[in-house]
Amino acid sequence: MAYVFSPPSQASLAVQGSDARFPVRRIFCVGRNYEAHAREMGNDPDREPPFFFTKPADAACDTPCTIPYPSLTNDLHHEIELVIAIGKGGANIKAADVMDHIWGASVGIDLTRRDLQADAKQTRRPWDWSKAFDLSAPIAPIKPIAEVPSLMQGRIWLAVNGKLRQDSDIGELIWSVADHIATLSEGMTLAPGDLVMTGTPAGVAALVEGDVVTGGVDGIATLEVTIGPRR
């Protein structure tokens, strides 16, 4: 097949214990999936149906890494999240069957240009400009699901320059992994290579140039991201 220019290379992430890489197709993100975070953002934490936004596949990047402080913002925030890697596609997946569709799991950071997000909320515009920028999804190497101890419980945490900022448990998810992936599959046909970032606990805050961010989900993965000079 001929193209008018060479297509971009396949976005991918490292896999724990392997030289093979996980090809990334799409990145779905679940909003407000921890009660304390919903409260700190000024929202009602009642268990309303989950909602989703997206990032482009090439927003994903391996860790450890250095990411330049992004343009157009003066309020870059960290959001640590459990990441689910889909290995088998499907639509209208039942919650009881979700585990059959999961290839692996990891931990990532949903970097957010919070000032742009606040403007989008105020003007009732999409969140894309605040969420879907370059390198906005640093993710640790993915652990195959057979080696993952649990997707129901486990400490999730993030520190900046060694000071703990986010500290919770994935058992505090408002919508479990099975529930929100089943809901997602009702509106989108999932495919191998899709990633689902499952929401962040309380403690989100601003980053500045030179910050070293560490975080993880116990038993699954850890990461390190350095915030470099502004682009």
From TrEMBL:
Statement: the UniProt record of this protein carries the keyword Transmembrane helix: no
GO MF terms, alphabetically ordered: acetylpyruvate hydrolase activity; fumarylpyruvate hydrolase activity; metal ion binding
Keywords from the named record: Hydrolase, Metal-binding, Pyruvate
Annotated InterPro entries: Fumarylacetoacetase-like_C, Fumarylacetoacetase_C_sf
Root EC class: hydrolase
Pfam families: FAA_hydrolase
UniProt keyword Hydrolase, yes or no: yes
Enzyme Commission code: 3.7.1.20
Record SUPFAM superfamilies: FAH
Residue ranges occupied by any Fumarylacetoacetase-like C-terminal domain in the UniProt entry: 27-227
Protein known as: Fumarylpyruvate hydrolase
